[in-house]
Design goal:
Layout lengths: L3 H16 L16 H18 L5 E6 L2 H9 L7 E6 L4 E6 L2 E6 H5 L2 E9 L4 H12 L22 H8 L22 E6 L6 H8 L13
Antiparallel strand pairs: 1-2, 1-5, 2-3, 3-4, 5-6
Helix pairs in contact: 1-3, 2-7, 5-6
């Protein structure tokens, strides 16, 4: 299995190639529902289901529709995830670190770019402790993406996606074997899955979504 350092080199190679073609090249492995209305309805279904089940400070692991997501998911061990974020139940938003840095955005906007998601509740944390972890993550808004951290060379003033989630939740202080580099799938062992979306293109999921509440406007879905 490819090491995370090899993965990082591969990611940088893909990023260089992508810069000559498009800002965010799409996944070569995953497809969206062909009907944009169905696609938007699935995003709304997931938004409502997560709002009912998740709490502030929970983690959301996801598999994106981007080529970079293909690289990360294929090259790392564990479940098929390429990204990690933290949930804010009060505002129904997520906090994440992407190429442009740490940011906050609506949950539905986040979900619209993903093929499947899971909500993970970090182990051995009270609701109050999870609320503190969310505040820690929010305090990093605007911080840059940690490119060096993906190679195992930590920059305390920058974060890659799963690093932000693990740091804010103080995973290192709650485990006897902290990892120098933690992947989105690697976060799974530090929590319990409380929600699993299934694939966006699953026939049952699409049917349920179309009989659910009012879907989001199609124009708001990032395709």
């Amino acid at each position: 299995m490819m090491s995370f350092r090899m993965l990082a080199a591969t990611v940088l190679m893909f990023a260089t190639l992508a810069s000559t073609a498009a800002c965010d090249p799409k996944s070569a492995l995953l497809k969206r529902p062909e009907n944009p209305t169905v696609d938007a309805a699935v995003s709304q279904l997931w938004t409502d289901e997560i709002a009912e089940r998740a709490q502030s400070g929970d983690w959301i692991l996801s598999r994106s529709y981007y080529l970079m997501g293909d690289v990360i998911a294929v090259a790392t061990r564990g479940e098929d995830f390429s990204h990690a974020a933290m949930y804010d139940a009060e505002h129904n938003t997520i906090i994440e670190s992407v190429g442009s840095g740490v940011r906050e955005l609506p949950l539905t906007t986040f979900l619209a770019r993903n093929h499947h998601v899971a909500v993970v509740r970090p182990s051995s944390m009270t609701p109050a402790q999870r609320a503190i972890s969310l505040s820690r993550a929010r305090a990093q808004l605007g911080k840059p993406f940690d490119d060096a951290g993906m190679f195992g060379f930590d920059n305390p003033e920058a974060f890659y996606c799963s690093e932000l989630v693990a740091w804010a939740s103080q995973v290192d202080s709650r485990t006897d074997d902290p990892e120098r580099v933690i992947t989105p799938a690697g976060l799974m062992k530090y929590g319990e899955v409380i929600y699993w979306s299934g694939a966006r293109t699953n026939e049952q999921t699409m049917n349920v979504a179309m009989h659910h509440q009012r879907p989001v406007e199609v124009s708001h879905v990032e395709r």
